Amino acid sequence: MNPQIAGNPPVATPYFFYGLAAIMIIGGILVITRKNAVHSALALITTLLAQAALYLMLYAPFVAGVQIILYAGGIMVLFLFVIMLISIERAEKERQFNKQWLVGIAAAAALGGLFITVYTATTKGRVLFPEGRTSYVDMQNTQGIANLLFDQHGGTYMFAFEIASLLLLVAIIGAVVMAKKRI
Amino acid sequence: MHALVQYIESYLSSDKTPGTAGNWFWATVYVLLVFVGLSIAVIAMNWLERKILAHMQVRLGPMRVGPHGLLQPIADALKLLLKEDIIPDGADKVVFWIAPFIVVLAAFTVFVVVPFGPTHAITDMNIGILFMLGVSSLSVLGIVTAGWASNSHYPLIGALRSSAQMVSYEVAMGLAVVSAILMTSLNESSTGTLSMIGIVEAQKAQGEWFLFKFFPLGIIAFAIFAIAMVAETNRAPFDLPEAESELTAGFHTEYSGFRWSLFFLAEYSAMIAVSSIAVTLWLGGWLRPFPNLLHGTTWDLAFSFIPGIAFLLLGAMCFYNTARMPKHPLFKIQTIGLAGFGAVLALIGLVMFLPPVRERVGDIFWFSAKVAGFMYLYIWYRGTFPRYRFDQLMKVGWKVLLPTGLALLICTALWAMRSEVWTQVVVPVGMGFADFVRRLL
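C-alpha cells for the assembled complex are given below, as produced in the milestone run.
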C-alpha cells in the first residue's frame, strides 16, 4: 500500500478528465471528417493517446502502456505505412461511395442513449468525482493483471487470452494466403 | 518563507523520487535539470562525435572555433537558428510543421522514468520500462509523417525504410527486455517488476548485474538489445533511413534550420534514452562497478572519490592543453578561456569531494558514466562498420535476432525454474521412460 497515494487525492482530476475527453471527441470527429487519410490517422493517434491517459487516471498504468505500444506505436505505424503509399490527390477527388449516414446516426444515437441511461441509472444520488473514494494502489496493477492471467488458482483468463492470440494467428495466415498467389 | 524552506528540505531527506512523493516543487526542478542536462549532453555529443570520428580517420576535426573546436557546437546552433527555414512547395504544411515536434516530444518524455539514482528520477512508474519502450516507439510516427509531408521522393523512401526497420527491431528488442525482466522475479516472493528503479534494486538485491546473470544468457540478451537499439535509433551501421549516399539525407532531406536541429536533438536524446534502458536493465543502473569483488566501507569510500577525481583529471587535461596552446597573441583569448574552463572543471571536482555532495552525486555519476560508454560505442560503430543493405538489415532482424531472442527467453525461463523443471518434468518423464524400457525388456 502506498500511503502517499492514499493520503493525497489526485490533483485536478475532473479538469484532466474533461480535457482528455474533449481531446478524444475532437480527435474522433476529425478522424471521420478529414478527407486526407494521413490527417485522419494523426487524429486517431491523438485520440488513442488521450485514451491511454484516461487509463492512467483510472490507475491502470499497464493498460495505458499497452495501449501506447500496441495502438499508437504499432498498429497506427502500419496504418500510416499503408496510407502513405496511396495517392492523396486522387483519394481527395474520389466521391464518397458508402452513403450510410442515416444508419450511422441511428447507431450513434442508440449507443449514446444507452450510455446516458446507464449513467443516470448508476449515478443517481451520487457525484461524478467523489472526494473520498477508495483508490486502487497503482503499484500493483501489472502484478494484478499477471495474477488474473497466470495465477494457478485465480487465473481464469489464460484460455480466453490464448484463444484471442490464435485468432490473430489465423488472421495473419489468411493475409499471407490472400496476398500470395503461390505458397 | 520558513514553510517553503521546510517544504524544500523535506524532500532532501526523502527516500522517494519527487514524482512518487508527490512533491511538485522538486518534480519541476528535476524536469528542468534533466532537460538542461540532456541539452548539454547533446551539445557535447555533437562535438565529441566530430572529434572522435576525425581522430579515427586521422584528421583533426573542428579546430578553429574555440580551443580544439570546443565552441563549434555553439557556432553550429547559431547557424542553424539563423538559417532560412524552407517549407517545400506542395508539402503538407501542418504535418510538416508537427513532425519534428512529435520526434522531440517522444525522445524527451521517456526521461521521466530514467533512474539516475534511487531517488534521482523524476518519477518511478509501475510500468517504467514499458513506458520507455512505448513512448520511444512513438518517434517513428514523427519520422514517417516527416517523410510523407515533405512531398518528395527521398524523404518518402527514408520514412518507409525507417518504419519497417523500427517495427522489425522492436520485436527482438522486446524479447531481450522480457528476459531481463524475468530475472527481476528471482526473489522470495517471486514477483518481478517493470519499474526502472525496481529493476536496478533487484540487481542490487541479487548482488549481480543482469549482464553476468545465468552466464551466458544475460550477455546474449544484452547483445541482442545492443544491436537492436542501434537500429531503433537509426544510427550507423543501420542508418538506412538517412543513408546519405542513397537518399541525400533520408526523411529529413527537406528540413532546414530550426526544424532540422529538432531532428538532430531528438536523435541524440533517443540514443541517450535507449542507452539508459540498456544500463538500467543489464549494467546495474546507478550501482558502482565491482560490488562483490571490492566490497566493504573502505572500497565504498574509495569509489565515492572517483567522480571528483574524474573532474579533476578533466581539469588537468584542460590545463595541459592550455600550456600547449600556440603562443601567438591571436590565441590569447582562447588560451585564457581554456584555462578558465579547466579551473571550473577542477572546482567542480573539488566540490565533489565534500561528503554531503559525494554521497548524493555518486549514483548520478556512475549512471552517466555507463551511458557515456554507450555513446562512445555509437561513435565507434559509425567509424568502423559499413552500412548494411536493406535486405541484410531485415535478415538480421527477423532471421537472426528474433529466433535468438525467442530461444533465449525460453532458456532464461527454464534456467530460472530449473529446480521445478527438474523435479516436475525431467524426473517424472525419465522415470516413466525407464519404466517403459524395463517393461519392453
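Chain A has one domain: 3-94+136-179. Residues 9 and 25 of chain A are 27 Å apart (CA to CA). Further analysis is deferred to the final report.
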